[in-house]
Design a protein that fits this description.
single chain; 504 residues; alpha/beta; 14 helices; 27 strands; binds adenosine monophosphate
Length: 504
Amino acid sequence: MNLIETFQPSLRGRADKPALWFGDRWYTFGELDRQSDAVAHALVNDYGVGRGDRLSMFLGNCPELIVFYLAGLKTGAIVVPINILYRDRELTHLLTDAEPRVLLCDPQRFEVLAPLRHQFDALEQIFVTGADTPAATRGFSELTESAPDTPLSVAGITADDPALMIYTSGTTGRSKGALLTHHNLVSNIVTLLQCWQWTAADRFLLALPMFHIHGLGNGLHGALASGCTTFLLPRFHADTAFELLRREKCTLFFGVPTMYERLLEHADADGAVPADMRLYVSGSAPLSPDTFARFKTVFGHEILERYGMSETAMITSNLYAGPRVQGSVGKPLPGVSVRIVDEAGVSVADDETGEIQLRGPNVLKEYWRQPEKTVEAFQDGWFRTGDLGRYDARGNIIICGRAKELIISGGFNIYPQEIINCLVDHAGVVEAAVIGVPDQRRGELPKAYVVAAEPVPTEAELTAYCTAQLASFKVPKRIVFLDALPRNAMGKLQLQNLPERDCI
Ligand code: AMP
């Protein structure tokens, strides 16, 4: 079964039911279905898009993104979402690597993309949302208007066909495309619907970005597969989210820990909490026991924590019916097998810490055009998460750290090497190191240490340079100048000896 077939009971079976609310406008499932049929026809007829072609989307949450995404899936293409915070360096790499033929963006993102466009030979057409159509682009609304909206047959799209390619950063600092098949994504969403008892009666607030597995693979897919009503926000703002949860009698919300912190701040200032909620889910970064406890006191709900990755969709979850274990990501989801192993790949004793590895229908097919990375990602057929964990006495998994050098800030992943590569490309930087500093609101913040060259740049200059090159969450919040980086006798960097590691 492919994803579109999984969504059909909602798209067709609930055609006249309210699917989506966005900016004071309602969309039925039938409208989303018909509009995406029209776009799919245009993609096939005007550009010859077909199975395996890449289509990219670079825009904030909006109905057009959903329509384009569904259309892409209907043609059998691989959809490549782009983090809307990406800037020159990240975009150039991603678009050169993925080679999408058609891309949808919003006017704001078009401004970032336009000066780089000449580098992307494979990119035949850019569609832009909004009223104005910049030169050499096509207005997105033209697509929905110009083509017949009869359904395209999706019967030929197999479960093994790739559907989605999500770029994930890596230790080398070059992000790679994780190819997820229809089967990977269908198995993930069918499991979540069952485990979290998600039904058409739910009223779901979706404020997570849909360029990420959390917002797209869990949020949008669940909304479309369950047939529930979704309230979509362009981005998360605690006051708007809080107001919507209450006013629209929402029952379901997904967030990263930073969002729960913000909701708590808002509730402190406000008072009455949403009354109709049945489930709050957290993931993408560790939920602190303190946030879990305060949320329970103020909102009267135990946040359900789950654990997953772009490469694998969801791996473990706390139980819906409880108990939800504070500080734990719960147990493997049905169909997913987890093992915790030492460096040799041997299972550790019950209470010992090791690397979390998994097998299951959710694990990615491969990394795009990087067979050697795909091989490295597995040990004896088990996918290596790079996360460290252990079991508690009841078989719940506790994540204890990361074997990989990853910083998670506000739910977004940052690999230090990517920032280091960017910094050392600046003429004023000889070498650099980057660490994550604990932060109450965002979990961690990136801090850089550089050894400068003459003429020595200022911290403000380097910050401005990084801001133009990298997504804002990757820009170091502090850059410290050192005469030399601390190294041992073998020349190995000693990150633990960097000064003032605990504060920005
Ligand atoms: P991404 O591919 O952006 O979804 O990031 C995946 C990584 O986020 C995982 O490998 C973990 O390091 C981290 N992560 C996801 N969920 C959790 C969680 N509930 N607790 C701690 N870390 C998490």
